[in-house]
Amino acid sequence: MSQSNRQIRLAARPQGDVKPTDWEHVDVDHVAPGEGEFAGVTKLISLDPAMRGWLNDARSYIPPVGIGEVMRAGTIVEVTESNHPKFAVGDHVVGTFGVQTHVVSDGRGCLRVDPSAAPLPTFLGALGMTGMTAYFGLLDVGALKGEGETVVVSGAAGAVGTIVGQIAKLKGARVVGIAGGQEKCDMLVEELGFDAALDYRGDDLRGALRAATPDRIDVYFDNVGGEILDLALARLNMKARVVICGAISQYNNSTAVAGPSNYLSLLVARARMEGFVVFDYAAQYAEAAAEIAGWIGEGKIKTKEHVVSGEIDEFPETLNMLFRGENVGKLILEVA
Ligand code: NAP
After folding, report:
1. pLDDT at residue 286, rounded to an integer
2. pLDDT of 226
3. Percentage with pLDDT > 90 across the chain
4. Which ligand 1 atom sits nearest the alpha carbon of residue 49?
5. 306-316 pLDDT tens trace
6. Does CATH number 3.40.50.720 belong to domain 129-279?
7. Is the pLDDT confidence value at 88 over 90?
8. Cα of 12 from ligand 1 centre, angstroms
9. 176 three-class SS
10. Ligand 1, closest atom to CA 179?
11. Residue 298: closest CA among 146, 167, 177
């Protein structure tokens, strides 16, 4: 009897928040791997705010997911059958295999990971795209100099934010995080060593940010956009760098993205604001991952993964956790 492959496909382009009816859950036959291919079973699925953007039919850095297509996702699979010279049964492989329980791959764009070197979820977090985003966004786009500089990061308790803050700390900067809720803020200071953390849901973020950045901001690493970006722009130091990593506060908008009204602060501070896409650094991933692995080994970076265990059908609900701030660190669905 042929094995069944459960897939989560895009059924409709969401308007505003993503609804259960925007997805279809489909069973198809799982085909055997051909010559030069391997088959695998999905173990872990990465949940990323960018997924919301991939659902829109709009110009972006990557084509949108088509209606009826399997949802795009970075995953880790375990190889169950192989006719591929480089991948053996039992190997764990990271790739963009999509939200489905079973995959067949020719191995292009995949990477074998070693679960004895780090726990599997870390290969989607600090040693995966998340870590790469934090590393290149802060050190290359943000051009962090280190000691004497102040870094502010929004979405600070999330996947990218937790790594940005810790890299900035180990480079000697003063680090201020902005996150939702006192519990997340306490974790950032007490567990991850941030110098200060501000709850943006509190009464006076403007005043709190002013108090926490007496020397103003040299690098603002923005994960959220909207009003928080505006407040940060008003605190820039001379020659500051504003890193546009993402704008999660805007992703579910059904109206136009709210632009920053304080952008003339860039002029006054002779500052720059620059966006980036992590994929552009692919040629340097291995080098960056090795350095981050070293920092993890030395205890200078603590990895934070938020692993939800469940059926693949729980993907839509798990994705929405990102937009409700229900994750701490890297959100991952571990497929039962
Ligand atoms: P994440 O931060 O782990 O998860 C999203 C977090 O965003 C939530 O936990 C929530 O935390 C916060 N959030 C949700 N709605 C918000 C709102 N309306 N206002 C303020 N904060 C809100 O996700 P991630 O994977 O690390 O991604 C962070 C950002 O990086 C995203 O914007 C993503 O698109 C971007 N990104 C960019 C690249 C690139 O190449 N440029 C690559 C990867 C990721 P709170 O509880 O604190 O609200």
Report:
1. 96
2. 96
3. 96
4. 34
5. 999 999 999 99
6. yes
7. yes
8. 23
9. strand
10. 47
11. 167
